[in-house]
């Protein structure tokens, strides 16, 4: 079964909400270590983890990954007992103290190596000790501990091994999770949790809405900030709960939903807060969206009706700066099967009502317009109440509308 990787936001949002979020990643301190070989130490029953920390230092770059067994040499003599710790091999070119070898299905840890003789720990990593015939293949599995900080965690035996010139029992050693992996999963879980707690008018994943920039070509779809912040707070609550921090967990949860019903999610579900993708029945002022405005001139009035059952978005971009009679704009409307596909250029701004689209007119007011000043006007031909961004859209009453 595939695991979800969808999330509404990333770690940058967590940092904005709670800069110390990294401190919420749980770690398990490892106290008891035993020496396996010179400078090679092991801790058992450490609990699952994907990262090892040495006095706060993340040792992820030093993690050794086990590989498929590959033949390196052979036994020079049979292993006739299950508890013998001395074996002889045909070559030790790639075998030294700290190497883990495999013979048949049994893994062994090499404690010392003198010429072709090895002292080993039998049945390593929870494998079964067995006898082995002469000339049996001796295989390597990619684990040879011979450099400072090299480590490996074996899930089967729940054992962590590290090469350290200092006794790890004298250092703060912690097993936990890699920051990116752990936090990203918390964000995935928070996003799934949010989807399950949204009002029925939101079905499925919330869609992105366009965040308008100063240049139309760089307009990008993004999730509404309220969705981003709720997701971040839920992820922080999940992480705080994993650390058994009851007070901090409640702090994050209360910002999302609380008994006073004034949390971010409470307001969103009640309709007090609306997403930019939702159509608001009460929004009748027809104000444009100001994308960028450097000059002092701006649209102040809109009159007329947009008679259509289609959505429309009109861009007005200043191409020539100046006052009334000098300032010129380009008006972009739908055409050629795309928004902004048609352009009307060289439209002078007069200060009077001027045609925008259809029977809709707009009036600009102010001293002067600057080049690249831009406004977007969105139209819905029939007033609707949006039940779901993916579900039904119910007509309330036939009415022309501009907003």
Structure characteristics:
single chain; 403 residues; alpha+beta; 3 domains; 6-stranded antiparallel β-sheet; 34% strand; disordered C terminus
Please provide a brief summary of the model:
With about 400 residues, this protein is an alpha+beta fold. It is built from 5 helices and 27 strands.
Describe the structure.
The chain is of the alpha+beta class. The chain folds into 3 domains: 11-18 and 180-270, no CATH class; 65-144; 289-402, no CATH class. It has 5 helices and 27 strands. Helix 2 packs across helix 3. The two termini are 45 Å apart.
So how many helices? Answer: 5
- Give me the count of strands: 27
Q: How can the largest sheet be summarized?
A: 6 strands, antiparallel
Helix content: 10-25%
- Output the radius of gyration: 33 Å
- Oligomeric state of the chains present here: single chain
Strand order of the largest sheet: 6-11-8-9-10-7
SS class: alpha+beta
User: Roughly what fraction of the amino acids lie in strands?
Assistant: 25-35%
Uncertain spans, ≥5 residues at pLDDT below 50? 280-286, 383-403
Blueprint (SSEs and pairs):
Layout: H1 11-17, E1 27-29, E2 34-37, E3 40-44, E4 51-54, E5 57-58, E6 70-74, E7 86-88, E8 99-103, E9 106-114, E10 117-121, E11 137-144, E12 151-154, E13 159-163, E14 173-176, H2 179-197, E15 209-211, E16 220-222, H3 225-242, H4 246-256, H5 264-270, E17 289-292, E18 298-303, E19 311-320, E20 328-335, E21 338-348, E22 354-357, E23 360-365, E24 374-380, E25 383-386, E26 393-397, E27 401-402
Antiparallel strand pairs: 1-14, 2-3, 3-13, 4-5, 4-14, 6-11, 7-10, 8-9, 8-11, 9-10, 12-13, 15-16, 17-24, 18-23, 19-20, 19-24, 20-21, 22-23, 24-27, 25-26
Helix pairs in contact: 1-3, 2-3, 3-4
